[in-house]
Structures are given as C-alpha cells and as structure tokens.
Amino acid sequence: MDGNGRWARSRLLPRTEGHRQGVNAARMAVRYCAQQGVRVLTLFAFSSENWRRPRQEVGTLMDLFVGSIGREVPELVEKGIRLRFIGDRTTFSAKLQARMADAEERTRSNERMELVVAVSYGGRWDIANAAAALAERVRRGELEPEQITPEVMDRHLSTAGLPEPDLFVRTGGEQRVSNFLLWQLAYTELFFTDVLWPDFDEDELGRAFEYFAGRQRRFGHIQEQVVGTGDA
Ligand code: IPE
Ligand code: MG
C-alpha cells in the first residue's frame, strides 16, 4: 500500500491525511477480495524500516492502526474474516500487543477469508526469525540440520499454514518488493500500478485480477506440461 504521502502532498495536505484516506482504500480492498472469493489477503501496513520515519508520522500510523482494529473487527466477524498479524510484535507497546491478540481471538473461528496484516514486518526479519527458531530446535536435539528443507522452513515463517501468494500488487509507481514476503513471493505474479494507494479502487484491483488471469504459471515446468497438450 504505497503512495499515501504523495497523494496528500499533491493536495497540499499533511502526509498523515494520506494515511487516513489510505484506511478507506484498505477497507475497500478487504470487502472486494472477500466478495470475489479471495482466500487470503495480506496487507503490508508498516514495515520494519518504517520506524525510521518522523516520530509524528509513526505516531499517526500507530493511532490509525489501533483505531482501525477497534472499528473494523465487528465487520470482520460479521463477514467471516479471520485476522492474523505478522511482524515483530515485540516492537509494539504491551497494550497494542494485547489488542492485536484480542482481535485475532475474536475472529479465530472465521473461515471465509483470512486477512493478514503485516505490521513491523520485514521479509528478512521473517527469514531470520525462522532460522533462529530452527537453530533452537536443533540445539534442543529435536531436529537434525539435514532435516531443514524448504517445507520445514515454511512452517517456521510467520505465514505458516497459509498458501503461497498468487498475486502481489504494489501501488504508487515503484517497482520493487521493499522487504515484503521475500521467501513467499518466489513464484508470485507481480502487478505494479502508478495509482496512489488512497485512489486505489475496485476498478484498479479488478485490473490486477485480470492481469493475473492472463498469466500462465509454470512453476519451473515448460509450457507443454502446463497447458496439457497430451504429449507432456
Ligand atoms: C504508504 O504510503 C503507507 C505506509 C508506509 C504506511 P507512503 O507513506 O509510503 O506514501 P509515499 O510513498 O510517501 O507517497
Ligand atoms: Mg512510500
């Protein structure tokens, strides 16, 4: 979700106003994905590097985050959406950590869609964290180093139990991954749009889905193997 600041500055508004508008775009994305039958939606809300922003902006983002948890959970419950936060929770206040755990608990039995919110998240953090967990298991004698396969690694990442992402969407014109789900994006289709996040709407998300529908996914195979010509 990129482009909040530029959206606001182009209107001579403070950057924080862009973040406020961005919350509406996030709500739209959640509703639209649930309606379209998406099983898992992950929103990159705040990266481990975003802590470097000016104090006041970080404060606003945290306030919006806390406010959104409180406001949106009833709709998530009503729509059958399960919430999961991924990221380094130890960077948040005890109060915020408790709110996050409470929101997850209240939506735990929901099965229509899983909404994953990445906060204080970094792909490198995720991989390092999984490596540390695996090392700890080896130290305890529960696991041999030779048993560490990509599948075992998967189970120690913050996205354990979730399918690999099919489609990645980045708004705001930059064409980079910026430390999002580095391991998990290995075979994900990438869609970049110049639309700034607060302007991101159902039409643009629909275009991302159309782009995805037009991709042929080979996962290392050759074309004849995946289209089923009969001689594969
Ligand atoms: C993304 O918008 C939102 C967050 C990182 C929370 P930006 O704040 O990065 O907006 P730009 O890139 O400055 O326009
Ligand atoms: Mg940005």
From TrEMBL:
GO BP terms in the entry: cell wall organization; peptidoglycan biosynthetic process; polyprenol biosynthetic process; regulation of cell shape
The keyword Secreted is annotated on this UniProt entry: no
Pfam families, A to Z: Prenyltransf
UniProt KW keywords: Cell shape, Cell wall biogenesis/degradation, Magnesium, Metal-binding, Peptidoglycan synthesis, Transferase
Keyword Endoplasmic reticulum attributed: no
GO molecular function terms noted in the UniProt entry: ditrans,polycis-undecaprenyl-diphosphate synthase [(2E,6E)-farnesyl-diphosphate specific] activity; magnesium ion binding
UniProt cross-references to InterPro entries, sorted A to Z: UPP_synth-like (IPR001441), UPP_synth-like_CS (IPR018520), UPP_synth-like_sf (IPR036424)
Taxonomic superkingdom: Bacteria
Cofactor(s) listed in the protein's UniProt record: Mg(2+)
Annotated positions binding Mg(2+): D2, E189
GO CC field: cytosol
Residues annotated as binding substrate: 3-7, 15, 19, 47-49, 51, 53, 170, 176-178
Reaction(s) the record says it catalyses: 8 isopentenyl diphosphate + (2E,6E)-farnesyl diphosphate = di-trans,octa-cis-undecaprenyl diphosphate + 8 diphosphate
Active-site residues, Swiss-Prot/TrEMBL: D2, N50
EC number: 2.5.1.31
Note accompanying the cofactor annotation: Binds 2 magnesium ions per subunit.
Subunit structure: Homodimer.
Role of this protein: Catalyzes the sequential condensation of isopentenyl diphosphate (IPP) with (2E,6E)-farnesyl diphosphate (E,E-FPP) to yield (2Z,6Z,10Z,14Z,18Z,22Z,26Z,30Z,34E,38E)-undecaprenyl diphosphate (di-trans,octa-cis-UPP). UPP is the precursor of glycosyl carrier lipid in the biosynthesis of bacterial cell wall polysaccharide components such as peptidoglycan and lipopolysaccharide.
Protein family: Belongs to the UPP synthase family.
Protein name, entry field: Ditrans,polycis-undecaprenyl-diphosphate synthase ((2E,6E)-farnesyl-diphosphate specific)
Native organism taxonomy: Bacteria, Pseudomonadati, Pseudomonadota, Gammaproteobacteria, Chromatiales
Encoding gene (name): uppS
